[in-house]
Fold each of these.
Amino acid sequence: MSTETQEYTNGMRPGPLTREIPECMRDKYTVVQTVFDVLAFLMVAIGYIIQAIYRTIVGYPKKDLKGSIALVTGGGGGLGSLIALRLARLGCVVVLWDINKQG
Ligand SMILES: NC(=O)c1ccc[n+]([C@@H]2O[C@H](COP(=O)([O-])OP(=O)(O)OC[C@H]3O[C@@H](n4cnc5c(N)ncnc54)[C@H](O)[C@@H]3O)[C@@H](O)[C@H]2O)c1
């Protein structure tokens, strides 16, 4: 008959034997640790939600492109030409690249 005693890490509910949990993980399996983890997760999640709401309302700070050089591939037509025109209006030096010479 086995007379194995079951010792549990302080604060841990009966579950796996302490020796079955890797040495480095034992102190992390406490109720207090779990509560802290959940609270930390909630704080970070709420922080990101507040940041997303703020950015939706206020918007992102816009980068000043005046004087920047922009290379647009396929700038002879379609989306490329529209992007090139927009960049030129924002003050960029626009370099166009296209196989369609006419465009
Ligand atoms: N139009 C859309 O709704 C849409 C949506 C998602 C993605 N895209 C992608 O965006 C890109 C542009 O779309 P578009 O509708 O403006 O296409 P488009 O065909 O109107 O324009 C493409 C331009 O690229 C040029 N081009 C093609 N091969 C080239 C090469 N090897 N080197 C340089 N220039 C070249 C063409 O001459 C043309 O002027 C495509 O890759 C397309 O798949 C388009």
Amino acid sequence: MSGCETRVVAIALDGAFADHSADRRAGQQYPGGRTRPASQFSGRQPATAETDELLKSQLSAEGPASAIAKTESAADANEPLPPNAGQSADIDAQRIKESFGYLMADAQSAMEYFYAQLFATSAEARAMFPLCMSQQRQRLFAALCRVVGSLDGGEASRAYVAELGRDHRKFGVRDKHHPAFFDALLATARHCAGRAWTPETASAWRAALDYVSATMRAAAAADAAARPAWWVGEIVAHEVRAPSVAVLTIRPDQPLEYAAGQYLPVQVSRWPRVWRSFSIACAPRPSGLIDLHIRAVPGGLVSNALVHHLATGDTVLLGPPKGVMTAPGTDRDLLCVAGGTGLAPIKAIVDSVLAAPAGPPRKITLFVGARREEDLYDLAALRALESAHPSVHVIPVLSEQPGFGGLTGMLPDVVRGNGLFSNAEVYICGPDAMVRRTALLLAADVPAGHIHHDPLPDTPDFPAAGPGTGAGQAATAPQGG
Ligand SMILES: Cc1cc2nc3c(=O)[nH]c(=O)nc-3n(C[C@H](O)[C@H](O)[C@H](O)COP(=O)(O)OP(=O)(O)OC[C@H]3O[C@@H](n4cnc5c(N)ncnc54)[C@H](O)[C@@H]3O)c2cc1C
Ligand code: HEM
Ligand code: HEM
């Protein structure tokens, strides 16, 4: 058992990973297929002295390259990386794309064949894969297609595959799991190609899969030398601010480096192996504490657990922070547009700009959209920020409260109609549709490159403006309105 495994089980055993769902958790699996024995989760208990010691020792002088990270990289370093790690130049991408077509043409039988091969050769792999998660399946196919589609893409392809390698650390994937996975994939490609499979196709696939595996492993090992695969976060404050919104303050058990504006994956013990992204709502603090703003979506697994089931003293798992919508490197004024809990990363960015060593004075205008007044869950804190910093101007916008004394209407249109922002650095976060529409409207004034938001899915879904549609908050949006 590795260092990581020992650590999480130790925390689980002493009850610090407790919430109100002992019965559902019993016997369920945790990253890497570990199982929690039922008897060890008999209700919520306070963290013990043992946990405190554990947390203290992990927060001690070691720095980010912690014991857990060292253990993992040392174990994986035993397996030498193939010499072609990180080189895609010799891959016959065209040949692979052609035969990948056979696999895609009959995805159902490809899938059956793949899992039969994988599980026949690796019992451990069986425990690592969930039984049912169709959203994940779509992501997997998108990712596989992207890997195959970009095999001849040089640096961009290498960067994507490396990212996959880093991302898989939080699933408990280790070097030793790679051979069974890629052998199964190769066997599947051969099976699907049938008579079209030639020795040349075989060697093209082998070279490509060696490259993908080696690049993933090298990136994972480099990442493991710098940071853990996941952090245990203790909830130190849990405040329900609106009917379905809570603000959580979490103490990671080890230093967690991030840039203001980034998000991180969160897993709750009630839903083992289900990771959801949440934006960090503050700039990095000396205390290491992070804030999250969570909206519980109807029927949502992780968001409801975080808002309605977890409480102070409970713990969650945190994955590595990521995201490119980070604080500006310029001195331009700031226009921030936040819909719902899209406020979280925006607040972090504003925080970090205000904390930066004094530069030329810059105006920060923050539009905060919500449906009704009670949904402005962070208004008191924003007003306090405004009082402390005269450069900050907070403008609430409500979409479903016509009698409201302030601005009303659809957030993107209200922003567009209330100021000239051509010299501003623009940050937008919230439901996809709102982000898309705001970016579109502002693009008329603001030069390309000065409008920032997280990547959006391809399909536009902005509802027609009108009564009852909310401040641009569409149901499919990733970040709750
Ligand atoms: C980069 C990024 C950052 C994010 N940051 C935050 C954040 O700071 N705060 C926050 O609250 N959320 C944030 N989200 C959204 C979050 O990751 C989850 O998608 C959301 O909490 C739902 O997860 P769940 O497990 O509760 O719901 P699931 O179990 O995944 O979904 C259950 C049902 O709810 C629907 N659903 C999913 N999301 C929404 C939604 N937003 N509105 C309405 N219905 C929905 C699904 O279609 C499904 O029918 C972010 C998402 C991304 C991609
Ligand atoms: C990282 C590796 C993989 C993961 C995490 C993964 C995960 C999943 C999950 C969770 C499902 C949904 C199961 C369900 O809904 O019941 C699924 C289905 C599927 N997988 Fe995978 N998978 C992986 C690799 C592969 C590979 C390599 C192939 C093809 C060769 C493949 C082909 C499929 C297909 C075709 C389905 C759809 C089955 C259906 O429509 O019913 N998967 N996968
Ligand atoms: C071509 C290489 C690979 C691709 C394209 C790929 C793709 C993916 C994707 C897209 C996901 C879902 C990520 C998410 O939900 O955020 C995933 C999850 C996962 N992958 Fe892979 N993967 C690859 C290699 C591997 C390997 C080598 C293993 C080792 C066994 C592996 C095991 C897993 C596991 C265990 C999960 C999580 C399943 C869960 O619990 O939800 N993958 N993969």
Amino acid sequence: AGPGSYTVGTMSERFDCHYCRDPLQGKKYVQKEGRHCCVKCFEKFCANTCAECKKPIGADSKELHFKNRYWHDNCFRCFKCYTSLVNEPFMLRENNKVWCSNCTAAEDAPRCKGCFKPIIAGTVPNVEYKKMVWHKDCFTCSQCKQVIGSGSFFPKGDEFYCVSCHEHKFAKTCAKCKNPITSGGLTYQEQPWHSECFICSNCKKQLGGKRFTTVEDQFYCVECYKGCVAKKCAGCKNPITGM
Ligand SMILES: [Zn+2]
Ligand SMILES: [Zn+2]
Ligand SMILES: [Zn+2]
Ligand SMILES: [Zn+2]
Ligand SMILES: [Zn+2]
Ligand SMILES: [Zn+2]
Ligand SMILES: [Zn+2]
Ligand SMILES: [Zn+2]
């Protein structure tokens, strides 16, 4: 029983109501802090006030109390889902509202960056990235809106792209074949190239990292340039390479 507790019974002795002086013998009465009173006066002068509905909790109502607060048993419900908490675990939260454990867990759970709903631990798989969290199905590509889930992705600022959208949107495009360069490649005259596109025009060997010569926008390896392209010396018949 709480500090404002009282007992209700039927009076067998010759007592009068402390407030209105009506005889109590044979009637229902309330005893609180050593005083006896009728049910009406109890409700008027002594009853605890329900924390929820702010009405007095009369002798005929079932009263619940927690931390010096009182409720009609019918008023003791979850603030969020309105479930009766009379026989349920509960939490006292902001503004003295009582919450059921489900609603408490939902409220305190991290929020999905996609749907803004709470992510309850252990319910559905989720994706975490830099302290942000998504339901797996809410983690989608900014471009094509397909679910990325636990697949590979590319972050760009606040956006996330699936592999293929990232390729098309952001990857460098080869100066020769115009296809995206997903890995490797090289830069020549500030243009990106696939390694396999940057080749000798004659023997098709890759020229990345090797010496080569350009003649009218064509690339030649040293051997091909000497053998086929360079002008031959009229005197000694050797190629004039300038290299
Ligand atoms: Zn009375
Ligand atoms: Zn109430
Ligand atoms: Zn609830
Ligand atoms: Zn979500
Ligand atoms: Zn995409
Ligand atoms: Zn290419
Ligand atoms: Zn060659
Ligand atoms: Zn010569």
Amino acid sequence: MLSNSKILPVLLALWTGVITACFFSLYTDISQLYILGATVIVFVLTYLLYYLVFEHLIFTEIHKLYTLLTKVKKKDYELTKGELVKVEDPLSRLHEEIVDFASRKEQEITELKKLETFRREFLADVSHELKTPIFAAQGFIHTLIDGAIEDEGVRDKFLTKAANNLDSLNVLVEDLLTISQLEIGEIKMQCQNFDIHRLAEDIFEQLEETAGRRGVKLRFHKHTPRSCYIYADKYRIGQVLTNLIVNGIKYGKERGNITVSFNYQNDYVFVSVQDDGPGIESRHLNRIFERFYRVEKSRSKDKGGTGLGLAIVKHILEAHDSKIYVSSIMGEGTIFSFKLRKGKVINEKG
Ligand SMILES: Nc1ncnc2c1ncn2[C@@H]1O[C@H](COP(=O)(O)OP(=O)(O)O)[C@@H](O)[C@H]1O
Ligand SMILES: [Mg+2]
């Protein structure tokens, strides 16, 4: 590179020497020897001059700047003397450092802007979600206070409606708490060896009535082993399965089927929950794990969803170093799957 403290002065001195030689050669009465002598003297003197200027004024200052910039990048602002890093080509290094520094800052700013937008949207979403049940319960109670309480039929109906809305509010706040605790890592996974088949059987039993109301059948895939041990947090994996199965019941078709399957593969167990419902359009597939994202806003709300279920599922699986996958075919159904670490078989009583 030309920007070196030795090469640049040589080139500049050569250039000055050539100009001097050309100038003197215009005078025919000056001998060749004189011209050569004058050129050499001009070359040496200008080389020394340029060298001193470059080395001590420009390059040393650039060295200082470069070192300072390196320290700023490392967030160490104390510049001590005699600590300069010697680099071969400070100008281009300085250029690289500045470009690198600027692009990193740019990335940080973009990240911060994204977080800020996310925070603002989240706050707006939470307020909106909280407002709906509070507003409804408030309406029923005020109507009662304003006189509707006298009519026994209306009183019971309105009280039940107010209570239902407060129940929804409770579920929403609990989901919000879970999600924020999972996000800040406050909830640690309490891993143990357990039979996930047995856990799913218990969940089937708990959801029998809910599924029955829509005529939905809950079953295991025919090739699923009768017991399947995994090493995970039993309570949290129970939450994951419940969320996925409840979604299948709510958004799947009436009198449909929900099939749960487990498969051993090397050190892992692959779990899937499949329904034969209407499916999810591909443009929504990436987004359904976002908080409050619903495919059909009003229909999902009517079904009592908080819109946080899949976000919680995603967080729980991430805390198990795993990931949730979804694939869906319109009109055929949806399948959610994930893998968990295989566990040791233990003898459980009862
Ligand atoms: N098995 C499914 N079939 C069709 N749509 C689904 C299914 N599971 C989830 N969804 C869609 O994804 C959205 C997000 O799900 P989720 O986070 O569990 O929220 P919700 O509280 O509404 O159930 C739902 O509102 C629904 O639109
Ligand atoms: Mg749900």
